[in-house]
Amino acid sequence: MDITNGRTRIELADNGVIVGVVDVESGHGYFDADESDRRLFQLIVPSKIWSSRSITAHESATPEITENGEGYLLRYDNLELEGQPSGITAEVSFKTPVGTDEIQISLKLVNNGSEIVTGAIFPWVNGWQSPGDPELD
């Protein structure tokens, strides 16, 4: 799925992770994540014996994707932690403000589970490819 606003296009895989960011006007791809680099978010949910235990978008079930007047919403319902439902829901919003080249991305977490989320990496995008021109970076 692609989300485009002005000259900016974000390319998403079926599971919602960002696989590319492209300047539509020049055709340059700023990100081109291969299979091992595809990410969107990571939530840190430590346990007593594992301080970096985490939940990641790329290891989660495919989100429900809806389009609204402002852009798109990806909803990851009841994310799994160690193969079990966590009670944590993540919503990733991609807003496309009219008249701009921006795509605004936000993460909303709702925790109805017993685990504590102590941190988040968001947006987690890998695969930067500079065009070699400082004015384009």
Structural class: mainly beta
Mean pLDDT: 88
Q: How far is it from the N-terminal to the C-terminal residue, by CA? A: 24 Å
How much of the sequence is in beta strands? 35-45%
Question: In DSSP terms, counting alpha (H) and pi (I) runs of 4 or more, how many helices?
Answer: 0
Structural write-up:
The chain has 137 residues and is mostly beta strands. Helices cover 0% and strands 43% of the residues. The chain is built from no helices and 13 strands. The strands form four sheets. The protein has a four-stranded antiparallel beta sheet, with no helix packed on it. A four-stranded antiparallel beta sheet has the order 7-8-11-12, with no helix packed on it. A three-stranded antiparallel beta sheet has the order 6-5-13, with no helix packed on it. The radius of gyration is 16 Å and the shape is globular. The chain starts with a strand and ends in a 16-residue tail after the last strand. The mean pLDDT is 88.
